[in-house]
Amino acid sequence: MRIWLSGALFSLLLTLAGCDVNSIIKPGTPPPPLSTHNLQGAPMDLQKLQGKGVIIRFWQSTCLSCLKEMPLLEELYKKHQGNLEVIAINVGEPKSHLLGFLEAHPYSYSIIEDEARIITKRYGVVAIPTTFFINPQGVITDVLYGESDRLGLEKRTHNILP
């Protein structure tokens, strides 16, 4: 009963947010295309990352859960470098604010600015943080809405490694 209520509440929130519940990106499907440049200026093309596990994280600097988990994503990225890519997409914050934040909190994985929320809308993100786990074949294996603990992130990451 509780799971059904959670699903119904989530669907209601998505509908109220103007999302088509049937177009929500789900495990077992490929993610929408993502081709842009990260803040470091390097091109970022999701399609070219096939063969690696990919974590796409939508976050904001005011999100305490996001800030808590970003260092763990850094650990996972460094531990599995070559087999894992982490893409952190900042939602709705000005680039100048984001650059100041990252100067104080540097990360080696790709950070993408989405002040206009174009990528965020394309991915159907309505909650921050939202994390997509993509396997080496380019298929979403899991979508995490909200915070996770270390063990949960490590398990999901292990499941997408080549």
Spatial sequence of strands, sheet with the most strands: 5-4-3-6-7
Total count of helical runs of at least 4 residues: 5
Largest β sheet strand count, sense and barrel closure: 5 strands, mixed
The sequence of SSEs as H and E is HEEEHEHEHEEH
Structure notes:
This protein has 162 residues and is α/β, with parallel strands linked by helices. It has five helices and seven strands, in the order αβββαβαβαββα. β6 and β7 form a beta hairpin. Residues 1-18 have low confidence and may be disordered.
List the topology elements:
Layout: H1 2-16, E1 35-37, E2 43-45, E3 53-59, H2 64-79, E4 84-91, H3 95-104, E5 110-114, H4 118-122, E6 130-134, E7 140-145, H5 150-160
Parallel strand pairs: 3-4, 4-5
Antiparallel strand pairs: 1-2, 3-6, 6-7
Helix pairs in contact: 2-5
Could you name the key traits of this structure?
single chain; 162 residues; alpha/beta; 5-stranded mixed sheet; two-stranded antiparallel ribbon; 5 helices; disordered N terminus
Q: What is the structure about, briefly put?
A:
This protein is an alpha/beta fold and about 160 residues long.
